Amino acid sequence: MTEPDGTTKPSDEGRGLRDSTYSRQFVTGKGVAADPWAGIVEEHGSADVSSLVAALPDAVVRAGADASGDPVVQAVPAEVIAILTHLRDEAGYTMLTDLTAADYPEEDDRFWVVYILTRVGDGLTVRVKAGLPEENPEIESAVPIFASANWLEREVFDMFGVRFSNHPNLERILMPDDYGAHPMRKEFPVTGDIVMRD
Description:
Elements: H1 24-28, H2 47-55, E1 60-65, E2 71-75, H3 80-89, E3 95-103, E4 111-118, E5 125-132, E6 138-140, H4 149-160, E7 163-165
Parallel strand pairs: 2-5, 6-7
Antiparallel strand pairs: 1-2, 3-4, 4-5
């Protein structure tokens, strides 16, 4: 939808939002900070997230919706398995579509693990995010409740150095076992000499 000032606002039709409370600053892309919660509005309009917050109030730091209207939940890291289990068992989000991470070096919680769950029947998605400190970033493995987390957690471990406790086989999946760095961390050099092996 195009606004009178020429900016484009995402449609909220069919996304469960009660009103269009998007931040014009986020929609136009002006002044968006490198913040793990940038662009998230408080109004999520999701009955599933409201039920989650009511059932596990101490496990949820905050909840909102992204620009497309999909709900986003920030979890207390120690409670992420309880949140994922609730969303799977009580709200029907039975597929872990993706698990990834992001690096925000300026933040106290430098590494953010992001779980994307899908409810297969209607295609709705919800994101669950948990922030971890730079020193010893570790979170409980989701493999016991979502088998698809296995290789995804290994990739996050390999690329970001985030450890998943109680993972059945937490080894590098892309880089050699003896590789001394994590390529998706912001301090990883993106240019330099190319070294060829014989």
